[in-house]
Write a structure and sequence with these properties.
Length: about 450
């Protein structure tokens, strides 16, 4: 697929830059303008395609893709979309949603609660680790909803509701830490990892040490800041243990067969995704999107008569947002906007592999704190991809760490922190935008400094 780009004037590039900025501002003000992110980006995609056609930036004749002896004609906006990313998100979302119906994740949460015997510090440790693990295998929002809801019930039953704000804030921050653990834990990971060619196993091996250390430090700091201490005295410990013993981990299990099947399939899913990372294998050729969709199909067989209910639960807004976003970015590339941003990044890249990645990390984090990190990750992945960087380049990891951890700076930095604040307000606790930033900034700053050090001296 080839197209000879017409010479693009500086004025045209500037107009498209303004369009890009306008789109990002609208995404940041999504709730204020009462519009879903998919609608916002679809409107900008339509405008960008129209202007691209009128200005002769795009080849609006049918694009012919040649695969062997087969010729496929496609409109310009179809190959612009990264269908592998779309397939991974769709398949993983369906698989996780169906698996959660087995009661597996609720069972894990309640078992951990009972194991803690109601001790506040143990609860914080268990819930913190559970948040990270759930964020890694589910998605950040689902993890926050499950853990946050259980936290509110547990603390109320134990009579320590005054600690709820601290628990929920720490859990919200840890969702974005857990989002770093695997290649499929967050959308920026999928986008950047796919562009860089980072395998599932490599991603986990490189991210896990940081996630483990920072999870421990975040929980320790949260316990100190919010005064969460172990129970003092045998009587208090005995009373707390008796209170949590009333929890029944089997409440959410409708069918023991479906529960056991969910356990086996979750393990098989993670193992198969890892196997798809092995170069030269059949699964590697088919891609992680195929694996995700295949496991979703297997799980749907159990609910074949009501499969439409799971289709309704899919985040179609996110998928439509992605499709439109890839189209916008493709037009921006033709309009030389990405080249312009690339030139702006040149001073950072010229700093070398010591200071440069750290600067990229902090820049990505600050940007992600005030707007959606998905467009940022998509643009930076496209720009870094054009530089032919190696898969182990620290710049890829700078974008991954920055895009995820930037969500801990403000309550609008990620969907999971926004959910955490929503749960906080639902239970009548006071936490303003400024209050969140004031409370979360020490955690976020420490996480980012450690990430910078990890990039420079470990990766």
């Amino acid at each position: 697929m080839t197209h000879a780009l017409a010479s693009v004037s500086s004025a045209v590039t500037v107009w498209f830059v303004l369009l890009l900025v306008a789109m990002i501002v609208c995404l940041a003000l999504e709730e204020k303008i009462h519009a879903k992110k998919s609608v916002i980006v679809l409107v900008f995609a339509v405008v960008c395609l129209l202007l691209g056609g009128l200005l002769g930036l795009l080849p609006f004749a049918e694009i012919v893709v040649t695969v062997g002896e087969e010729h496929i004609e496609l409109p310009i906006y179809i190959p612009a979309i990264d269908w592998e990313v779309v397939a991974i998100i769709l398949g993983s979302s369906l698989f996780v949603d169906i698996t959660s119906k087995s009661g597996l994740f609720t069972w894990i949460a309640i078992v951990l609660t009972k194991t803690s015997r109601g001790d506040p510090l143990r609860l914080l440790i268990f819930y913190g680790v559970m948040t990270v693990v759930f964020s890694a295998v589910l998605n950040n929002v689902t993890a926050m909803i499950i853990v946050g809801s259980l936290t509110a019930v547990s603390l109320k039953r134990l009579g320590i509701g005054d600690k709820l704000l601290g628990f929920l804030l720490v859990e919200g921050l840890l969702t974005n830490v857990g989002g770093l653990l695997t290649l499929i834990s967050s959308v920026p990971n999928i986008i950047v990892g796919n562009a860089a060619g980072i395998t599932f196993v490599t991603f986990f091996a490189k991210a896990a040490p940081y996630v483990v250390v920072v999870t421990g430090i975040t929980i320790w700091l949260g316990a100190r800041v919010f005064g969460i201490r172990p129970l003092d005295g045998e009587a208090a410990r005995s009373e707390a243990a008796q209170l949590v013993s009333g929890f029944d981990e089997n409440d959410g299990i409708e069918s023991r067969f479906k529960f056991n099947f969910g356990v086996v399939m979750l393990g098989a899913f993670i193992a198969t995704i890892a196997a798809a990372s092995i170069p030269g294998s059949v699964l590697n050729s088919l891609g992680m999107g195929y694996v995700a969709l295949s496991f979703a199909a297997i799980m749907l067989v159990q609910y074949k008569s009501i499969a439409d209910r799971f289709y309704e639960a899919v985040d179609w807004d996110l998928l439509a947002f992605f499709g439109a976003l890839f189209v916008v970015i493709n037009v921006m590339e033709h309009a030389q906007v990405l080249a312009l941003i690339g030139h702006g990044l040149a001073p950072i890249l010229e700093l070398g592999d010591t200071v440069g990645p750290a600067m990229m990390l902090f820049s990505a984090a600050v940007t992600s704190s005030v707007t959606d990190n998905i467009p940022l990750a998509a643009m930076l992945a496209k720009i870094l991809g054009s530089l032919n960087l190696a898969a182990d380049s620290p710049y890829w990891w700078a974008v991954i760490f920055g895009a995820n951890l930037g969500g801990n700076i403000t309550p609008i930095g990620s969907a999971s922190t926004l959910v955490a604040v929503t749960i906080i307000h639902k239970h009548g606790l006071e936490l303003s935008f400024v209050g969140f930033v004031r409370a979360a900034l020490p955690f976020a700053a420490l996480q980012l400094v450690l990430a910078a050090g990890y990039l420079l001296w470990v990766l």
